Each structure stands twice: as structure tokens, then as C-alpha cells.
Hints:
mainly alpha; 8 helices; globular
Amino acid sequence: MTLTVNALLMSAGFFAAVLYVSHHLGRGDLQLVTAIYFILLEFVLITALALLFSTFSTPIFSSIFAFSIFAVGTFAEDLRGFAGMAHGVTRGVLTGAAYLVPNFAALNVISQVAHDVKVEPKLIMLNTLYVLVYTASVLTASVWIFERRNLK
């Protein structure tokens, strides 16, 4: 919730600055709401991953693991490309890793919005569904791991 409030306050400040500089908000400026929404979806996903790692690791390692997954997930499309060029077991491992890590690249529409290219409603719906399913899966795994921990 804190990340959402911070993002919304920063967005309000951003739109206030745009309004101050250009004296109006155009249709292109309002497309930024989609990019902000996708950033919020990334926050949801990375928070769920950090929670998963915190169920079995120390706080510092949870942060490192979550950041590492974010970094790898940002290049998930490239990982799929490398898997396509690989052979044998390496291809299988890379393909599995590419589909296991969250695809943060799909949630990055900032350059698309910056170039005034409309984000399709279908992409918004599919990315929302993707994040909800992935987050539910990660949170289910978190609960499963936490229930089996011996806290004595």
C-alpha cells in the first residue's frame, strides 16, 4: 500500500509539473496513466517475490534475490532468444528459466507511451491477468513455505 501511495503522489506531482509547463494536459499525457498502472503492477509482483524470499531467507538475501529476479525478468525476452539458439540440455534449462521468472519486460510500456503509441486495451487486460495469476501463485508458495517453517 505504501508503494502505491508513493507512486500516486509522485504521479500527481508529475502531472502538476506537466500542467505547469504546458498549461494543459493532452491525450498523450493521459496515456501516461497506463504506464503508471503497469509500474504499479510491477510493484505488486516484486513485493510478492520479496515476500516469498522472506519466508526462507534473511532480509538482506531476500532483497538480493528479489532484485536478481527483477533483473533477470527484465531480460526474459532475451533469455527466450538465447534459449532458441542453444542446443540440448542448455536449451531446456534456459527455456524453463525464461518461463519461470516473471516477464517484467512485458510490463514496460514507458517508451511506447513516450512515443505516443497507444497501448492496446487487450495488452492491459492480459498483463493485469498475468500479474494477478503470477502473484497468486507466488503468494500461495509463500504461504506453503511459511506454514512448514519451524519457528521454535
